[in-house]
């Protein structure tokens, strides 16, 4: 039997490869990610949406735990660190990264045909999971010409009596836009009046340039907050995230989902997260100062060059500049030259279902000198094509 034959199921009425309940497909941001194309091909990596990765040896850890299953909700001390100072550890469910938390939320609450309102552009899972489930997604668009600001009137217009979920991400990926606490409270009023749930992806919360907003889930049982250790702490490799809700029925439902998919998290990952969060204050202030230094590098480059314009980010470690209207060049060729000649990578617009005249620049991951060199390579690639 030739199992390699792509037409193997073609003649059969029963095609075991038909879509399941969820129609998974790979997205460009995953296919073209540095992990996929190989870090050795990249000299200046401006694609990342995080801060420099921590090294295991930086942590000075002697791991002395039994390699057992752990508490299905997550280790109690870890949940306490995640919840404090304003929330209740019983509202915390630890998950393998924010991505798993988002998946648990979407698959626990949504089914085909459900109406959802999703911020667009967005981190891919927030768009793709409701789409894969077959939801009716209405997109709340962030527009450059409106400084990527949240349009509350438009949101109100999109929410209908049968809306199940409103899904927002702040600080926003890929633009770095923020909302104020009063805007957040206005959104909460809207979801409470339907009623439906607000999912707030707060993965970049610690990287807000001003004071971070309160954990959104602490403001209403209609709000679900998601975050992780990946971005603000430079620990994407330990796969620790969490979902927070004050709604006890939802907590049970999310726990049931986690138990079906993962049972529990890795005991080693939880231990590392616990140790890092025990020094959260120092770590976050170091990270904020690194982001601030690097942001000044981007700002200087943006103001010095005549080809790009951008909306200044207010949080996170990414921004979404675009080519100015008068710049006429072959955009596809620009990315080829940037990648192949200058071994420099950014996130092209299509990663976010945007035009490729937009790009996401991740300025938190490289050291300042690498960031400057990468930005100079963008300059050289443009000059070569004009
Ligand atoms: C907004 C946002 N949410 C969630 C994630 C997933 O992060 P994690 O590594 O914690 O799964 C990302 C990753 O890029 C992100 O940008």
Architecture overview:
The chain has 386 residues and is of the alpha/beta class. The chain has two domains: 28-49 and 282-385, Aspartate Aminotransferase, domain 1, CATH 3.90.1150; 63-278, Aspartate Aminotransferase, domain 2 (3-Layer(aba) Sandwich), CATH 3.40.640. Helix content is 36%, strand content 14%. It has twelve helices and 14 strands. Strands 2-8-7-6-5-3-4 form a seven-stranded mixed sheet, sandwiched between helices. The longest helix is centred in the last third of the chain and has 25 residues, at 280-304. The chain is globular, with a radius of gyration of 22 Å. The mean pLDDT is 95. Bound molecules: pyridoxal-5'-phosphate (PLP). Pyridoxal-5'-phosphate is lined by residues 49, 97-99, 123, 169, 173, 201, 203, 228, 230, 236, 241.
Task: Write a concise keyword list for the protein shown above.
single chain, 386 residues, alpha/beta, Aspartate Aminotransferase, domain 1, Aspartate Aminotransferase, domain 2, 2 domains, three-stranded antiparallel beta sheet, globular, binds pyridoxal-5'-phosphate
């Amino acid at each position: 039997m030739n199992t390699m034959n792509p037409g193997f199921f073609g003649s059969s009425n029963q095609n075991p490869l038909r879509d399941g309940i969820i129609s998974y497909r790979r997205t460009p941001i995953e296919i073209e990610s540095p992990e996929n194309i190989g870090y050795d091909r990249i000299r200046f990596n401006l694609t990342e949406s995080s801060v420099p990765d921590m090294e295991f040896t930086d942590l000075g850890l002697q791991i002395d735990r039994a390699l057992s299953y752990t508490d299905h909700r997550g280790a109690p001390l870890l949940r306490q660190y995640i919840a404090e100072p304003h929330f209740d550890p019983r509202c915390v469910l630890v998950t393998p990264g924010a991505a798993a938390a988002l998946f648990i939320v979407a698959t626990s609450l949504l089914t085909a045909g459900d109406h959802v309102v999703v911020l667009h552009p967005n981190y891919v899972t927030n768009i793709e999971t409701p789409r894969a489930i077959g939801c009716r997604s209405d997109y709340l668009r962030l527009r450059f010409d409106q400084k990527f600001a949240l349009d509350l009137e438009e949101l109100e217009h999109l929410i209908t009596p049968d809306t199940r979920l409103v899904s927002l991400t702040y600080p926003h990926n890929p633009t770095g836009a923020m909302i104020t606490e009063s805007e957040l409270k206005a959104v909460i009023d809207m979801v409470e009046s339907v009623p439906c749930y607000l999912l707030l992806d707060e993965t970049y919360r610690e990287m807000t340039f001003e004071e971070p907003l309160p954990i959104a889930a602490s403001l209403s049982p209609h709000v679900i907050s998601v975050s992780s250790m990946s971005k603000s702490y430079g620990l994407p490799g330990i796969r620790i995230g969490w979902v927070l809700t004050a709604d006890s029925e939802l907590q049970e439902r999310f726990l049931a989902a986690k138990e079906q998919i993962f049972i529990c998290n890795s005991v080693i990952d939880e231990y590392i997260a616990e140790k890092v969060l025990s020094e959260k204050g120092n770590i976050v202030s170091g990270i904020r100062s690194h982001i601030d230094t690097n942001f000044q590098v981007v700002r200087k480059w943006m103001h010095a060059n005549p080809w790009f314009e951008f909306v200044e980010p207010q949080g996170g470690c990414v921004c979404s500049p675009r080519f100015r209207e008068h710049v006429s060049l072959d955009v596809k060729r620009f990315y080829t030259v940037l990648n192949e000649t200058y071994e420099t990578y950014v996130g092209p617009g299509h990663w976010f279902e945007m035009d490729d005249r937009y790009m996401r620049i991740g300025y938190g991951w490289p050291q300042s000198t690498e960031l400057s060199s990468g930005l100079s390579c963008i300059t050289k690639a443009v000059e070569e094509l004009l």
